[in-house]
Amino acid sequence: MTSRAKRAVIIGAGIAGLTAALRLRQTGWDPLVIERAPARRSGGYALTFSGIGYDAAERMGLLPALTRRHITPDEMTYIKPNGKTRFSVPGATVRAMLGERALNVLRGDIEDVLYEAVHEQVEIRFATTVKAVAQDGLDVHVTLSDGTAETADLLIGADGLHSATRALAFGPEEDFRIDLDHMVGVFMMDQLPETVAEGSTATLTVTGRTLAIISLGQGRAGAFFGYRTDDVSRDLAEGPHKALPRVYGQMGWAAPEALAQLRSAESVYYDSISQMVVDRWSRGRVVLLGDAAWCVTLFAGYGSSLAVGGADLLAGLLQRHPDDVPAALAAWEAQLRPEVERKQKLGRRVKGLYAPADPLRLWLRDLPLRLAALPPVGRLLQRRLQLKG
Questions:
Q1: Rounded Cα distance, 299 and 178, in Å
Q2: Separation CA 225–CA 316 (nearest Å)
Q3: Are strands 85-90 and 268-276 parallel, antiparallel or unpaired?
Q4: Residue 40 forms beta bridges with which residues?
């Protein structure tokens, strides 16, 4: 008689959840993915994908597909409030600064690649949420909003910053959330503003507000809003269609065009920039993964890499401890937590440089980029990359 495959219920079909589903399937598990959204989302902000996530994607054979989604900027331009250029960093220098084992990709493009790799192998239920969680020594029992119940060897909460899994099995969100007093809004634009060159990324920062317009090629563009706030609850209650015009209405440059396109945007990501500080990532046979567990924030710039690398490591340790799920979870956390905590500390330390509140902090933030924009420095960076290659 052959033993049944171990069952895992994964809450969340984002980067962490899809990676966990793919890796567990590859190691002989039977994953079920539950996603509250009615359909897959696309777009999201651009990020640097490197480190343990890049290494894991290479092992899983995902790098060719991710590389095809790589955004290679021709230029990074920093704008004055009057719309004129402050300084520009050439694309060759940007690529040299990025390094050899790193990609610039949209968050949604990473999800696309993972979904294409896993959706024919694993059941994914959309428009479904987790309603109750109970467990005994051998199993975890999950009640879902579609009226079904699942019994599994493991429940993975990969449902993001506002995780329902965490609320049910660990406690209320406010017990773990640290707000960093910033908000972020991102959406895909119908067309690139005339003030932004095709193939470039242009950024304006004034008095605690940053607006970046990212040309994504083939007529695609993304708008990225990030700003300081003294009242996260108010901004969340207002939502993007009220808060962003209030904050950016008088900004100038490309802000009026971006705000006009916001009104008809198909999907808008808008949330506080917050971290999750959870003392233990697992309770029995329930484990948190990705932003549900740690959320290092975009200040640290490593969340997607940690999600992919963390899910890969989790599956590997479950394979190494096939008959002892709690032991695998303990080993996984012991190995991963030091890197997560380093990135969280980095995020808290650099938050003042994200949308600087005064000209001095803006100058300090931009100084390394201004140096990189100088031709001799740019040539040196490019030469170092060529030597490494």
A1: 14
A2: 37
A3: unpaired
A4: none
Q: Give the confidence band of 381 by pLDDT, cuts at 50, 70, 90.
A: low
Q: Give CA 245 to chain center in angstroms.
A: 24
3-class secondary-structure state, position 179: strand
Q: Are residues 144 and 129 in contact, defined by beta-carbon separation less than 8 angstroms?
A: yes
N-terminal to C-terminal alpha carbon distance within the chain: 52
- pLDDT above 80 for 370: no
Closest CA relative to residue 73, chosen from 87, 90, 53, 55: 90
pTM (two decimals): 0.91
pLDDT above 70 covers what percent of the chain?
94
Cα dihedral sign, 197-301-206-222: positive
pLDDT of res. 2: 42
pLDDT digit string, tens, across residues 239-266? 999 999 999 999 999 999 999 999 999 8
**Structural domains of the chain, ranges and CATH numbers in brackets:** 7-41+107-177+275-351 (3.50.50.60)
Q: Is 100 helix (H, G, I), strand (E, B) or coil?
A: coil
Q: Which of 174, 164, 142, 145 is nearest to 288 (CA)?
A: 164
